[in-house]
């Protein structure tokens, strides 16, 4: 453990054994078999979980799916089913720090997560992919494409966060403050936050709340909460919005028009909340920065189009993949 983290955790009375520092969340049954890639990060052995789902009649194309901050590979199941039915191989990692992957105490960065993901593809012998990235995955997908443009044939950003620089208007929170917030989470707090993803809440959306809340029952929840806090700061401190104009890869923006997601929104006044997270405006601004961009606007849809409006989402995806 790094010295700074050790001092912080000592002050909070939350020292972990090394095995806990690379804890894994295992309380959810994923829709397809999960495999593991061994990695070494900052002298810590960790495992990266992933699903590799192959079609019965392959078309030779592979899609890499990158999950959001409050999610993991589980929520891609409908998209995976559609992709494989249409001949695409689906590679669906849980990034290190999420889901069934290890949750080590390390310095998290989009660069390192991208490097891990490239290593996974190299290990599987995959030389070309289309990247489909949602929410925080959009920030990672952008970084991945900027780092490895030679392997990304197309990029799809589904309601990505990071279309604006949060640190320019959201008050700073220390890692200790964010950790205490993560530690105090409940099923109800997760549910309340996820309700903001949809214009109208439906009971079936509780499935994703149950998946997120499964970590609350983990004996390693302290380590998971610490990873959650550190990765919040990763989003806050590592914007990608200034680099969209560097993307040469053909890029599709799919934007649910009712989305108002802002990382750290609860720290803003009502007046400030109304000024930010305006996805219709952000989508139009962003597509203008792309060298080869297309924008699909989904009316009446919130933060997770592939869950709320799968038919419209998959229609837009399919047209772009052709």
Automatic annotation (TrEMBL):
InterPro entries: AB_hydrolase_1, AB_hydrolase_fold, AB_hydrolase_sf, Epox_hydrolase-like. Residues 62-264 form the AB hydrolase-1 domain. The keyword Transport does not apply. Residues 1-23 form the signal peptide. GO terms for biological process: acylglycerol catabolic process. The keyword Cell membrane does not apply. Keywords: Signal. It comes from the Bacteria. One of its GO terms (cellular component) is membrane. One of its GO terms (molecular function) is monoacylglycerol lipase activity. It holds the Pfam family Abhydrolase_1. This is Pimeloyl-ACP methyl ester carboxylesterase. It comes from Larkinella arboricola.
């Amino acid at each position: 453990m790094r010295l700074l983290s050790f001092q912080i955790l000592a002050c909070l009375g939350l020292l972990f054994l090394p095995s806990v520092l690379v804890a894994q969340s295992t309380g959810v049954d994923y829709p397809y078999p999960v495999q593991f890639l061994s990695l070494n990060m900052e002298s810590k052995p960790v495992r990266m979980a992933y699903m590799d789902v192959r079609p019965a009649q392959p078309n030779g194309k592979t899609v890499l799916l990158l999950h959001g901050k409050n999610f993991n590979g589980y929520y891609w199941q409908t998209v995976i089913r559609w992709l494989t039915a249409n001949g695409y191989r689906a590679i669906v990692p849980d990034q290190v720090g999420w889901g069934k992957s290890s949750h080590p105490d390390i310095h998290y960065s989009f660069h390192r997560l991208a490097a891990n993901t490239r290593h996974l593809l190299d290990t599987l012998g995959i030389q070309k992919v289309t990247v489909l990235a949602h929410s925080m995955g959009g920030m990672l997908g952008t970084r991945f494409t900027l780092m490895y443009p030679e392997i990304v044939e197309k990029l799809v950003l589904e309601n990505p966060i990071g279309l604006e620089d949060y640190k320019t208007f959201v008050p700073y929170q220390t890692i200790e403050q964010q950790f205490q917030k993560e530690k105090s989470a409940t099923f109800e707090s997760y549910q309340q936050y996820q309700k903001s993803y949809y214009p109208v809440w439906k009971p079936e959306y509780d499935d994703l709340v149950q998946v997120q809340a499964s970590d609350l029952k983990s004996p390693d929840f302290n380590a998971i909460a610490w990873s959650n806090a550190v990765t919040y700061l990763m989003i806050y401190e590592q914007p990608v919005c200034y680099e969209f104009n560097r993307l040469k890869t053909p890029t599709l923006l799919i934007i649910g028009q009712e989305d108002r997601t802002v990382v750290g929104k609860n720290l803003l006044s009502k007046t400030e909340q109304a000024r930010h997270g305006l996805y219709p405006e952000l989508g139009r601004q962003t597509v203008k920065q792309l060298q080869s961009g297309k924008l699909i606007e989904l009316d009446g849809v919130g933060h997770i189009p592939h869950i709320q409006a799968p038919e419209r989402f998959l229609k837009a995806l399919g047209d772009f993949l052709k």
